[in-house]
């Protein structure tokens, strides 16, 4: 059984369902998400620094919500995600459209390399044409 240290609180926990943080922090994060969402409903487009100040949720967590698509980047002023490949400002996810296309192409290429085409078989022993002699009398 694999155990991990929670990157947020350093507790040791058993990761479940692809979670990177411990169950305590998951709950904490849900609460923080509710608070931020509620705050933004009343103050759409608030500057990120004010959101952090008013909700007590740190910027990393807010950016993570945006990354996960749970919050709109546009709903918080100054909260910007950056493409992990080229650094362009993006509104959600990890990569900009251009890099995503390139990644997809790379993946396709990698998949193509791992599945080499079956070598073409030479057709050996071609059936000889048979000639029938017909009698024309
Ligand atoms: Zn934790
Ligand atoms: Zn990019």
From TrEMBL:
It comes from the Bacteria. InterPro entries: Flagellar_operon_YvyF. Residues 110-137 are annotated as: Disordered. Keywords: Cell projection, Cilium, Flagellum. Residues 118-137 have a biased composition (Basic and acidic residues). This is Flagellar protein. The lineage of its organism: Bacteria, Bacillati, Bacillota, Clostridia, Eubacteriales.
